[in-house]
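Quick question about two entries, pasted in order.
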Amino acid sequence: MPKGEGKLIAQNKKARHDYTIEETYEAGLVLQGTEIKAIRAGRVNLKDSFARIRNGEVFVHNMHISPYEQGNRYNHEPLRTRKLLLHKKQISKLIGDTKEAGYSLVPLKLYIKNGVAKLLIGLAKGKKKYDKREDLKRKEANRSIQRELAQRQKGMY
């Protein structure tokens, strides 16, 4: 199964709007207690999350996994920092890439693949305001073209 495929749990839609994604990496997550049950229930928010490299390891910060309802005292802390599982070569490449100005690691998707929770992180460069406006104009133009084509298709039949 290619990376980024599986049962989609959560997606960071704002990331592709705010950043230009250069490369993507599929990472496993180190979870504890009831976190996987909450993930399977879809109680995850990636909106303000980001990833950092510290001591040769990658961690995701501000990823909100809501407490599991039946978790009682074994429940987890919702905003704790979670370790990401990547190959050493991938981490060393990410270290080199993030040292360049303007690059950061942004979580894009959380999904379940072969029964395991995976996080798709992207090496991202921040967009300027005019880039965002340009993208919106391009999307709107494509939408109007598709609309026109659909109208012409209906007229032909």
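Here is the second entry:
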Amino acid sequence: MAALELDPVRLTVSPVRRFPQLLAGLVLYGASMAMMTRAGLGLDPWDVLADGLTRHTGWTFGTAVAVASVFVLLLWIPLRQRPGIGTVLNVVVISVVVDLVRAVLPQQEALGWRIPLLVGGVVLNGLATAAYVGTRLGPGPRDGLMTGLSARTGLSVRLARTLIEVTVVAVGWLLGGSVGLGTVLYAFSIGPLTQAFLPLVAWRYRAVRN
């Protein structure tokens, strides 16, 4: 199978195909985050940070996610990263959706519900990530920080991502964010899940030519 091309492509190219997928991916991403928070078994690295922020500020979870995302975007400036429409919508849509879903999805107490909710949230997150990344309309704030740091320092993308996420988890944990089984499950599974879903949803130029 040929390697997937994921470099940004302007919105005017196949917008009817790509823009709805971008929105759907971001909505599903926000929903998957809400599922993991309501499972109460540990969060992904960036959500550990957001959870920690809510405990000290009184912000909603979505507001904490948005503030963290805006801060990350500010770090793009010295890294000379350029946002796309997908970057901006990533901040807005995910932050709104996660709060909306949390408002209707109660915190789970029974382990028989918490484990499926966690696993379902992680799998849905992998699909959602592939869906919005596959539109090639600009990386999310955290993805851009990873690639920008790699480009400017010479670190591998893998090492750059590891350093960022270890730092984020540590700060979030110190703030009281939820670290647990879900954090470990997410760390080991999100890459393979996203990779598995990408070929199914990634936009390709040949779809325009045919």
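Reply: The mean pLDDT is 89. The CA atoms of residues 21 and 44 lie 23 Å apart. Hope that helps.
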